[in-house]
Design goal:
Elements lengths: L1 E6 L2 H13 L4 E6 L2 H4 L3 E2 L7 H11 L3 E4 L3 H4 L2 H7 L4 E2 L7 H4 L1 H11 L6 E4 L2 H11 L3 E5 L8 E4 L2 H13 L10 E5 L4 E9 L4 E3 L4 E2 L2 E3 L3 E4 L4 E4 L6 H21 L6 E10 L2 E8 L6 H5 L8 H8 L15 E8 L22 E5 L2 E3 L5 E3 L3 E9 L2 H13 L14 H5 L6
Parallel strand pairs: 1-2, 1-4, 2-3, 4-5
Antiparallel strand pairs: 6-9, 7-8, 7-9, 10-11, 10-16, 12-15, 13-14, 15-18, 16-17, 18-22, 19-22, 20-21
Helix pairs in contact: 8-9
Length: 427
Amino acid sequence: MKVLVVGGGGREHALAWKLRRDDPRVEIVAAPGNPGIAALGRCVEMKATDVAGLAALARGEGVAFTLVGPEAPLEAGLVDHFREHGLAVFGPSRAAARIETSKRFAKELMLAAGIPTASARTFSDATAAKAEAHRLGAPVVVKASGLAAGKGVIVATTLAEADEAISMMLEGNAFGDAGHEVLVEEFMQGEEISVFALTDGTHVLPMIAAQDHKRVGEGDAGPNTGGMGAYAPVSIATPQVADLAVDRVFLPTLSALREAGCPFTGLLYAGLMLTREGPKVVEFNCRFGDPETEALLPLMASSLLEPMRAVANGDSLAGAAPLEWKGAAVTTVVAAGGYPGAVRSGDVIALPPDEEGVTVFHAGTRRDASGALVTAGGRVFAVTAVAETLGEAQRRSVAHAARVSFEGRQLRRDIGWRELARGARTP
């Protein structure tokens, strides 16, 4: 079986790695891929948003199905194009992907369907948006409505910060078209978790929860990033919480999307705030999250390949066995100096020797003209360690990540700190 993986980051490396773990006979073709994925299959230099080119590639390669990693090709209508041409593909249509690509659409759909979430209003005028922020009071959340690479959400602890965020988005063009419309949202008190579910549009196969660490600095200090690390499992994501997520979030959302004429198939990601009133949706993503994917997939004892192929072919997940999991994982992101701001690329990388139970997923790397491995992005690697306890997984992940060497390297050494503070078993 041959599978086309669209994308070239750590998430796509982890997905390709898992498919090969599920069945070593799987042939991976990736576009554009990265040096880590190249060790598992063949990479083709092609943009992830080149919809027509990717369709031609899939047809020419005779792939069993195509797996879309990033959100940009989904917004570009890749799935729609593939389906129109009879090509099996895992991911939602462009209209269904609006659950992520338009926060306004997602919020209006949730509120209309009674899905638990924070109240919010949408603005394109800075003065009106600031007035709403002042009405709600601090802390308050300001969100760019469109795609902003995971950095378009600002939790303003003061009204001055809220005013600055609104000005930056609506007047300063900080996020381009993604920030021409903003949501001003009430602040929810609680702890956030990430929950993924494979879906055929009606039925769901939920995964265990993970927790992302968005802030660049230890102790969750500093600016937001695309994610500096993640861990799983999360003890506060109890079986009761998992059931509530399915019954009150995933199934009603899928029903609302079907009623809106845009059924969702693929991977639906819910960021959930665990409040006193129960789990509430912070946001949805229309694809696997990064870096949570790198933490979750090494724990997955079940096949990902089989349900993914079923969904890509339009088959039902009804009656599918629950997914099985084993162990604890911590993923430490190794980032370039300056991230999440301006970063430089082309710095030569030295990797430590392979270590049992530790997997290094390439996120922002490339080969230079001489064949040397060099940096090529803000987040360079995601280093995942799996162990019996979270404490041991954290220790091994940090130790291995700290041995990755390149100019300006930065990482957090406290991924999973909340869980360990709750008393997660340590060695």
